[in-house]
Amino acid sequence: MVLQTSKKAATTDIERTKLQEEELILKKLQPNHYLVLLDERGKMLNSIQWSQQFQQCMNQGVKTLVILIGGAYGVTDKVKKRADQCWSLSHLVFPHQLVRLIVAEQVYRTFSILNNSPYHHV
């Protein structure tokens, strides 16, 4: 799911943009959602660790795991506090379209690892 804010607001008032995004994000999240925030200052995990984290969530009975790619200016402290975990894909910063692709591939790789598929070479 992609949440959109006004492009004009994003270029004129950063704090207002972040607050608009916060409202959209928190409105969509349910109390039972397990939120993983992707942030360049988050914890760096390799593919095996991603799969271990997913397995841990499944073992705990997490029904909905939400991976949040923050806005161009990051997210508010309120959203950070709502997150159950904060991960980083890299020390580099990527465009959001590319991050979506990387996350999709990593989720596929995670389930391949969990199912002992030969897709991931260790």
Structure description:
The radius of gyration is 15 Å and the shape is globular. Strands 2-1-3 form a three-stranded parallel beta sheet, covered by helices on one side. It has a single domain (7-114), classed as SPOUT methyltransferase, trefoil knot domain (Alpha/beta knot, 3-Layer(aba) Sandwich). Helix 3 (47-59) links the parallel strand 1 (34-44) and strand 2 (65-69). The chain has 122 residues and is an alpha/beta fold. Helix 3 packs across helix 5. The chain has five helices and three strands, in the order ααβαβαβα. Helices cover 48% and strands 16% of the residues.
Throw out a few tags for this protein.
three-stranded parallel beta sheet, globular, single chain, Alpha/beta knot, 122 residues, alpha/beta, 5 helices
CATH topology: Alpha/beta knot
Structural class: alpha/beta
What is the number of helices?
A: 5
Domain count: the total is 1
The poorly predicted ranges are: none
Distance between the termini: 32 Å
Strand order of the largest sheet: 2-1-3
Oligomer: single chain
Number of strands: 3
Helicity range: 40-55%
Shape: globular
Q: Tell me, what is the CATH class?
A: Alpha Beta
The CATH superfamily name is SPOUT methyltransferase, trefoil knot domain
Task: Determine the strand fraction and express it as a percent band.
Answer: 15-25%
Mean pLDDT: 91
The largest pleated sheet is described as: 3 strands, parallel
**CATH-level-2 architecture:** 3-Layer(aba) Sandwich
Question: What's the order of the H and E elements?
Answer: HHEHEHEH
Radius of gyration: 15 Å
